[in-house]
Amino acid sequence: MRVGVYVDGYNLYYGGRSLCGRGTAGWRWLDIRALATTLVGERKNWANGTIERVVYCTARVDASDNPSGHSDQDIYLRALDAAGSVDHVEYGYYVSRVKPMPLAKRDAHGRPSLISPQWPVMIQDGSGGSVTDARFMVSVAHREEKGSDVNVASHLLADVLLGTVDAALVISNDSDLQFPIRQVRLRVPVGTVNPSAHQTAGALRDAPGNGAGRHFWRKLRADDFTRHQLPDPASGYRLPHGW
User: Fold this and answer.
1) Region 173-194: what's the mean pLDDT?
2) Could you tell me the CA-to-CA distances from 82 to 73, 102, 226, 233, 238 in Å, in that order?
3) What is the pLDDT of residues 23-32, one digit of tens each?
């Protein structure tokens, strides 16, 4: 059974950071093919599954905005290619803009709770009356990665519809992938891998026997990252400092 692996790099990176810790070393130098091989090998009903191709979808960090991040990412992408850990890298892009947003704090469940006027900071109208239903607005520098989810969906659909693969492994917890994954499940078995500490998106859930059947869902753990690291050096590319 030929398995295609489709990775949302942005989702995978921030998922790993949430599981392993932002300042923790030992998880970023991830060998994606080795991880995918283990995930497929765990499935008894995916017998003889072999990794046919690994598609890694990401966006380049802006060198002018984050030179060290750009350099580290560049080394990692070169190492992935040189070590044969991925077969194809598809690039999206970042959009930077100033964005007005309401001022908020986290509630007990980590969700945004809007800040309302209250003493010692209160808003008054022209007659001196308190305006308690006002909203504080701030402008923030906002950078947003664009294209990775679309690129994952496009490669996934193209490979399945063209018969390039017999099963698919999607590493992402992006609910925007609901439609393409649902369509692919009608045709081939799909493994949906949540790389984050958050619950698997409801939009990505289904029944294991629907469509082609033999679907599965898996959440990554911190040790999934630490146990599947590229060698250092990887075909001449050294692990960046702090990784």
Assistant:
1) 98
2) 14, 45, 20, 11, 12
3) 999 999 999 9
How many CB atoms are closer than 10 A to CB 116? Answer: 15
Q: What is the distance between the alpha carbons of residues 98 and 139, in angstroms, rounded to a whole number?
A: 6
Cα distance between residue 141 and residue 65, in whole Å: 12
Parts of the chain belonging to CATH 3.40.50.1010: 2-92+147-226
How is residue 91 written in tokens? 């690039």
Residue 54: pLDDT band by 50, 70, 90 thresholds?
very high
Report the pLDDT averaged over residues 90-94.
84
- CATH: 1.20.1050.10, 1.10.1740.10, 3.30.70.270, 3.40.50.1010. Which one for 2-92+147-226? 3.40.50.1010
